[in-house]
Amino acid sequence: MAQKGGIDIQSLSPEQLSQLAKQVEQEIEYMLQNYRAVQSVISSYSEAREVLDELTPANKGKEIFLPLTSSLYVPGTLSNPEKVIVDVGTGYYMEKTVSSAQDYTERKLANLKKTSEDIEGSVESKRNSLAQITMVLGAKIKARRNA
Predict the structure, then answer these.
(1) CB within 8 A of 15, min separation 6: which ones?
(2) Residues paired with 13 in a beta bridge
């Protein structure tokens, strides 16, 4: 007896199964959108980690380009490579040492990767549920035609 979320899908009509399949497909799409968003944030933190690796006392006084937007940069000089300002969310920023910022970035990456893996597992589970629903729906439609 195949079940989806406590529902005995065998007892549902083909119309109900079709509606349930559409609902599960929408849930999968929503999860995939979340997955893509998490992957984008992971990419941003990975880039930040690479930049932090380049901030060394030897780079003090070097010319750099500072991003104003994703496509607009201004020239600047690196005056203090030991400290950075970190966006900690919801409009809050903290001054941290490079080492502390690297630790923060690593923790965020670890949490984001776990979230990404959790979403992947949920999507896989939903896809399995959808396959069961589709299989039962196909059998019911076939049985209806043969009746």
Answers:
(1) none
(2) none
Write out pLDDT tens, residues 37-58. Answer: 999 999 999 999 999 998 888 8
The answer to whether residues 81 and 98 touch, using CB atoms and an 8 Å cutoff, is yes
Element (H, E) at 40: helix 14-54
105: exposed, middle or buried (Cβ count in 10 Å: 0-12, 13-18, 19+): buried
Contact 75, 63 (CB under 8 A): yes
DSSP character for 46?
H
In angstroms and rounded to an integer, the radius of gyration of the C-alpha atoms of the chain is: 25
pTM: 0.81
Residue type, 18: S
